[in-house]
Amino acid sequence: MTAPAAIEVRQLAKRFGATTVLAPLDLTVPRGAIFALIGHNGAGKSMLMKLLLNIVQPSEGHANVLGMPTSQLRGEAFTRIGYVSESQEMPEWMTVGALMAHLRPMYPRWDDAGLLEELDLPAERKIRELSRGMRMKAALASVLAFGPELLLMDEPFSGLDPAVRTELIQALLDRTHTEDPARATTIVISSHDLDEMESFATHVGFLQRGTLLFAQPIDALLTRCREVTVTFEGDVAASVRAKLPEGCVAAESSGAMLRFVDLRVHVEDHEGAIRALMPDAVQVQSEPMSLRTIFLALNKAPRAEERGRA
Ligand SMILES: Nc1ncnc2c1ncn2[C@@H]1O[C@H](COP(=O)(O)OP(=O)(O)OP(=O)(O)O)[C@@H](O)[C@H]1O
């Protein structure tokens, strides 16, 4: 029997009074995925994680994690699910070594052999004496050691220098990922560093003001989004721009030049497809995009993207 998806969400929503913080959303995160949850400040990323952890209860809909309904998550379930957040509360008075010793008996699969050395963490130092980067290392060590099947990380690297970020990501990948996706830890990670996310995530979900605009493998997203520049003979770019099909967003025109982002790419010869759409074009250029440039384009034309999916 195949294992259930790591996360299965159906019509999950959260409201506070008349304020909708998360509109009903569906989401499936396969086992072994590294799922980057992206979106502006206040988009609902932390709220979605809290709903998945049963820290907050939904207004409607339901979610399963590791095959368990979130409403039933308690006690033993949390020996299989790890959570690391930017504002992680830690027992400040303990040393790093004492924290590890305190947690060890609670987890059947605990294995911290070599972990503190790997992360360059001094076992004898009190947590309150640690720098921001070291605190985050200690927080990460305390979840990596119990071998979680699912790890939710809410902006774990914010404010850390690039060297520490790289070290943490390496430790994370070394400890959680194997050739076999069925045995790998599923990671959901929210971050504002999109270049970093693109470098190691396998999937991406984009939350915009409480609405999940899409969730899909990063490769598929990068394939379907291209930045297009079209040059015409005369001063016609603005009129062509006005007739762009849905799914072409973030359009700008000036004189004979039109630039836009096409979110609907499904053919190999994309330039040919644009030429067919715009027979008066003199020159057509279709360039691949990064996760960061796609994010910026979607923010210029959020509703167009939603229509583009319909
Ligand atoms: N208890 C609450 N009552 C009312 N509104 C809330 C509550 N908790 C969170 N919110 C609102 O929910 C929205 C989403 O917040 P959330 O913390 O999930 O955003 P985020 O995407 O994680 O943002 P950031 O990137 O800044 O961390 C925000 O507008 C926030 O004000």
TrEMBL record:
Record Pfam families: ABC_tran
InterPro entries per UniProt: AAA+_ATPase, ABC_transporter-like_ATP-bd, ABC_Transporter_VariousFunc, P-loop_NTPase
Gene3D superfamilies attached to this UniProt entry: P-loop containing nucleotide triphosphate hydrolases
Residues covered by the ABC transporter domain: 7-234
Keyword terms of this UniProt record: ATP-binding, Nucleotide-binding, Transport
Key word Oxidoreductase present: no
Any one GO molecular function term: ATP binding
Taxonomy, superkingdom: Bacteria
Record-given protein name: ABC-2 type transport system ATP-binding protein
Species annotation: Bryocella elongata
